[in-house]
Known about the structure:
By secondary structure, the protein is α+β, with helices and mostly antiparallel strands. The protein has helices at 9-17, 49-64; strands at 24-27, 32-36, 43-46. Zinc ion is lined by residues 37, 39-40, 42, 59, 63-64.
Amino acid sequence: MISYEIPDPFDTFVANKYKDYKGMLYDFFAKEWHLKAACCGEDLYAPNKKTMIKIRLYHTRNECMGGY
Ligand SMILES: [Zn+2]
């Protein structure tokens, strides 16, 4: 038997909408954004998405790539 996986249009929409924030989760209890860094698995926290992106960039460049 062959079965076909038909992607749900809503799931696809959500996945595309949030693809830039992959792995970024909002902690409702701490009121912070949480991200596990892709480079080393370190936990990063930020009060908002904009700050998180800066922290992630800084972390990747300065802490995991030696300042490039
Ligand atoms: Zn890292």
